[in-house]
Design brief:
elongated
Length: 118
C-alpha cells in the first residue's frame, strides 16, 4: 500500500495549497493600507462583505499564516446603556507582508525607512 503522508496532509488541509481569492487579497490590501489592526466589522465595510464572511476569510488567512488575530474587549453603547463585548482585531504578519511584496503591493512598507532628524 502506497499512501504517502505528504499527499494525505495536502488533501486534509486544502487552505495551505489553494491560492488566495479576490476577497482574501482585498483583505490583505485593506490591512496594509490601514497601518493599524482592524476589526472584522471594519474589514467587512472596506471589502464589501458581510461580517461573518469577512471573518471566515480572515480565519483562512490566519491558518495560512498571513494574518494574526488579537481579542480585545470593546465598549459599545446600546441606547442609554453600554457593555463590553469581545472583538477580534486582525493584523498582517511578516509572512503576509512578504506575500504582498512578492505580488508588488508592499514594497514601500518593507523598505527601510529613513531616520528623521527633528
Amino acid at each position: 500500500m502506497d499512501t504517502p503522508a505528504a499527499d494525505s496532509s495536502r488533501s486534509s488541509k486544502p487552505w495551505r495549497t489553494k491560492p488566495l481569492n479576490a476577497y482574501q487579497d482585498a483583505i490583505l490590501q485593506a490591512l496594509l493600507a490601514s497601518e493599524r489592526p482592524l476589526s472584522s466589522a471594519d474589514l467587512s465595510r472596506k471589502v464589501a462583505l458581510g461580517t461573518d464572511e469577512a471573518r471566515g476569510h480572515c480565519i483562512r488567512l490566519l491558518k495560512k499564516g498571513l494574518l494574526a488575530s488579537q481579542k480585545r474587549w470593546v465598549r459599545r453603547s446600546f441606547g442609554d446603556r453600554s457593555r463590553r463585548n469581545p472583538e477580534l482585531f486582525w493584523t498582517l504578519t511578516q509572512q503576509g507582508l512578504e506575500y504582498l511584496a512578492a505580488r508588488g503591493g508592499a514594497d514601500a512598507w518593507l523598505a527601510p525607512r529613513p531616520e528623521t532628524t527633528a
